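Write out the 3D structure for:
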Amino acid sequence: MNEKPDVNTKDALLSAAMEVFADKGFDAATVRDICGRANANVAAVNYHFGGKDALYGAVLEEIFPKEEHLTVEPDTSRSPEEHLHDYLTAMSSEIYDRGNGMVTQRWAIFLREMAKPSHNLDFIVQRQVQPRASELRAILAKILGPDVPDHILAFSSSNIWSLMLDHLLTQPILDRLKPKRPMVQGNMEGFVKHIFTFSLGGLNAVKESTKG
């Protein structure tokens, strides 16, 4: 008879923790804040999760799920350039248009970890960043060719990531610039097209510059 309320309390704590950690970051967030937002007793975090740190880990597991993969399936009939376009489309949608309602909390927590890294950043990198970085690197290796120097491959990958993340990282500044840059949301196709065209032009220039 008591199982259902316990489950509801645990879910409420997890949902509240996402909001509080996103708003305040791990260090500033308190168990009292989280329990107050969840309408739960302050002892509930220890009971259901074993403490604030374990609750934060559960939040990261929820917003960076292990089973989530970028939907870019290998297809030998498509060129590396087409794979790059598919990758940019999938990544841009994941960053700016995720449909499960957690996009705000997800990237707020991500940016807070970037600004003040903790041991939890290792989890985010391994779960979220490394697979996507490795996938992009493999695509670029095919475009740039087998003889491309490793540092050029690394720089090129970082450059493309910077283009994709620019609006996420600098939106408060972009909102204050004139003329105002368009939002990514509502203009996803144009955003992806620009990044693809810009990136491909740069990659082709880099490829030419590295020829013996």
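The first helix runs from residue 3 to 28.
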